[in-house]
């Protein structure tokens, strides 16, 4: 029997990691780190990974899927580590950046357990990574497992993982998108039916509004930028350094060329620039739109030096595309936002998921005219414009439901990568639309059958 164990500690978007076992063989899907917890609490249930792990398959380069990879590879030296070239090129600098962040937190927060791994640990991990192509079967020595990676349309290099065994087929979606973004194409998923679907549920609690699709929000963002510039303001767009930075930069570049926004200077952060260089180098290797577009030489973003922050005077007509997306304390977007708060002609525009408890989430809740309390000073009045444009990298819940029911037609669905209310929505909808499909919310640390037991 093939079993599936959810190694994420709770039903949420945490340290995503899932273990497949068949007889003596085992394969790990992703090895993430919780985006909001600290220390070992932020890792998956690492002690449940068998010592003789055969392989690790990495779905994409987000921290909640890769942040624990150096820990897992160090503890399981015999495991093959497989990912696309896009993912490999992105995660090496990202993991080194994680070491820097943890080292800083060791000093600032007095966390003696940090860093959980070192630059040397990242290098030791990276030398054993193997590049895998899309759409080609990957065998795991002498096991019944065979895998095929399919483009997931989420960020550069992202994949959905098809899991084949002797008699069954399952699909692990990873994070995926069924619609286009500015650079990413819709996912190129394999055809159903599948026995089992292991499915991300990120947006299960967020209803899509009919008519408000990607193009709608792109135009709305550009209009918001135009209006801000017309009243002499500057725009801050808090973004993740990888993925969102490049998507928004491409959107703004094309908008400038088409005269939809003025030829404004765009500032990006140092890590954002490093990630953009990888996107440029990888532009023809991963499925995407605008395959010829080289963002650094063509969009010509300026690199923002955070050492300028203490003396920075905001200029109208400038766009600051800075990380982090959640405006985590000590990041550039967090610090620069305080300069925007008192200026009513400026704007802070969110373009992606914001955790409600993060500084970004709190600022969105406060809104223009409110007061935001980030815990480090007294509540601060927010006079600048604050808006949200849904340029998501994830499939909407409506798209996922339709796709799962009509195209994948699974007999068993395992709900992962979502909060309890998001998972509950999918569970209820699937029960209604496909009553014979078994829907499971895999309990942390407990092996369950990957495939429905038909005996
Ligand atoms: Zn992701
Ligand atoms: Zn994720």
UniProtKB/TrEMBL annotation:
- One GO MF term: RNA endonuclease activity
Region of interest (Disordered), ranges: 435-455
Alphabetically sorted, this entry's keywords are: Hydrolase
| Protein name as it appears in the record | MBL fold metallo-hydrolase
Q: Name one Pfam family in it.
A: RMMBL
Give a yes or no for keyword Hydrolase in this entry. Answer: yes
Domain Metallo-beta-lactamase stretches = 14-212
Q: Which InterPro entries does this chain map to? A: Beta_Casp, MBL, Metallo-B-lactamas, RibonucZ/Hydroxyglut_hydro, RMMBL
Organism the protein comes from? Verrucomicrobia subdivision 6 bacterium BACL9 MAG-120507-bin52
TM region(s), chain numbering: none
């Amino acid at each position: 029997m093939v079993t599936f164990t959810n190694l994420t500690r709770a039903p949420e978007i945490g340290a995503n990691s899932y273990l497949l076992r068949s007889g003596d063989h085992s394969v790990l899907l992703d090895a993430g780190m919780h985006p909001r917890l600290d220390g070992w609490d932020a890792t998956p249930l690492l002690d449940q990974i068998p010592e003789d792990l055969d392989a690790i398959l990495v779905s994409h380069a987000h921290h909640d899927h890769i942040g624990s990879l150096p820990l897992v590879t160090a503890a399981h030296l015999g495991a093959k580590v497989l990912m696309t070239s896009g993912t490999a090129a992105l995660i090496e600098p990202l993991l080194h950046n994680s070491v820097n962040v943890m080292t800083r937190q060791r000093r600032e927060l007095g966390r003696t357990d940090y860093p959980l791994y070192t630059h040397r640990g990242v290098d030791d991990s990276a030398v054993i990574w193997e590049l895998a192509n899309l759409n080609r079967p990957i065998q795991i020595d002498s096991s019944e497992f065979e895998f095929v990676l399919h483009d997931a349309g989420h960020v550069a290099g992202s994949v959905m993982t098809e899991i084949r065994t002797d008699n069954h087929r399952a699909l692990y979606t990873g994070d995926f998108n069924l619609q286009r973004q500015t650079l990413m194409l819709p996912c190129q998923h394999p055809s159903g039916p599948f026995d089992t679907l292991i499915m991300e549920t990120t947006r299960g609690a967020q209803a899509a509004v009919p008519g408000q699709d990607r193009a709608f929000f792109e135009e709305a963002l550009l209009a918001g930028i135009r209006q801000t510039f017309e009243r002499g303001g500057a725009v801050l767009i808090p973004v993740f350094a990888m993925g969102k930075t490049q998507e928004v930069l491409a959107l703004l570049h094309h908008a400038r060329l088409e005269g939809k926004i003025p030829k404004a200077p765009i500032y990006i952060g140092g890590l954002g620039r490093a990630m953009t260089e990888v996107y440029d180098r990888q532009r023809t290797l991963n499925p995407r739109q605008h395959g010829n577009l080289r963002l650094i030489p063509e969009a010509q973003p300026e690199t923002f030096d955070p050492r300028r922050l203490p003396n920075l005077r905001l200029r109208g007509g400038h766009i600051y595309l800075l990380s982090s997306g959640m405006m985590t304390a000590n990041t550039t977007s967090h610090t620069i936002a305080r300069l925007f708060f008192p200026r009513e002609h400026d704007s802070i525009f969110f373009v992606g998921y914001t955790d409600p408890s993060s500084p970004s989430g709190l600022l969105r809740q406060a809104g223009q005219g409110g007061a935001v309390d980030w815990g480090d000073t007294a509540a601060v009045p927010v006079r600048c414009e604050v808006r949200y444009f849904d340029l998501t990298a994830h499939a909407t819940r409506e798209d996922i439901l339709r796709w799962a029911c009509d195209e994948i037609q699974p007999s068993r669905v395992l709900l992962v990568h979502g909060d309890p209310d998001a998972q509950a929505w999918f569970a209820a909808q699937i029960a209604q639309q496909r009553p014979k499909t078994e829907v499971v919310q895999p309990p942390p640390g407990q092996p369950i059958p990957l495939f429905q037991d038909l005996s």
